[in-house]
Write the structure tokens for this entry.
Amino acid sequence: MEYEQLKLDNQLCFRLYTAARLTMGAYHPYLDPLGITYPQYLVLMVLWEQDKQPVNDIAHKLFLETNTVTPLLQRMEKAGLVKRTKGKEDTRQRIVSLTKKGIEMREQAKHIPECLSNEIIQITREEEEFVRMIPSLDKLIQGLKKQQTNQKH
Amino acid sequence: MEYEQLKLDNQLCFRLYTAARLTMGAYHPYLDPLGITYPQYLVLMVLWEQDKQPVNDIAHKLFLETNTVTPLLQRMEKAGLVKRTKGKEDTRQRIVSLTKKGIEMREQAKHIPECLSNEIIQITREEEEFVRMIPSLDKLIQGLKKQQTNQKH
DNA sequence: CAAATTTATATCGTTCACGATGCAAAAGTA
DNA sequence: TACTTTTGCATCGTGAACGATATAAATTTG
């Protein structure tokens, strides 16, 4: 079986890729009414935890590149969720802060994590094994992140 | 802690999303020389396993929508990897088949899965716990897929 | 202090991903 | 057989994701 490994069935990455897409899809019923996308929801969670952050910090916390986050923030600014102001000590920075609308959305989003986890329990009849995946995923993420930032030089 | 669950740290989906992106990134050093992307690699794996499939079958095996796969295949056709011919019994179908170039690429790609799994082992110093994630991810994928196809009516 | 380098962000081009819509062929129905 | 519905694929528009590149401000260096 020379090509046995080249089968979809045997591949972890394909499963991660698919699981991530479908899980993001599961957020649709909750995010559509708020008029936001999943990546925008991630940005909001970062800002709800700590308001007024430069683009770089947000990107770093989401493991995204700034050239992904910048247009994302521009769309969110157009939607009235955030403001982007020039930094005071460092004028190269853009400090991103929540608008009233962005702050208030936290209240509406409060129950989303619980809803999602309930859905996953209902779908899979098992929560424990997903909680158990978390440390493994973290290890993978940290390792890949380190590896890939090293590769850039 | 009213908003405790609205923290990135507590979310499985964010980890899946990030792990999937970074893992796809880990394929870059192997796929760039072949001139293909990760989703194109997935399509090739589907066709290597069984040549001459309609668009719908490919999309279904990858858990993607046909309106994602169609442009993907068009790009792959332009790159000379696949041919798309009209179906004979059902002329609505487009049968996708590998070209010589597409077939030959299998030989060059043969070692990619092994390389990737070696990298993950090296990065995380542990393979077992990732292998253990596979059934959980499959359960999640199957459950979400069923749920989301039901939701469409 | 001037020049070179680094840093923070933005812009551009390409590829996904997918909802909405369109269209022609096939299948089901009156 | 005519009509309706379904199916298979394509097109369009929007929003990511990211490599490459640009630009201005800060930092380092000579």
The longest strand of chain A covers residues 82-86. The radius of gyration of chain A is 18 Å. The helical segments of chain A are 12-31, 38-49, 55-61, 66-78, 100-109, 112-124, 128-151.
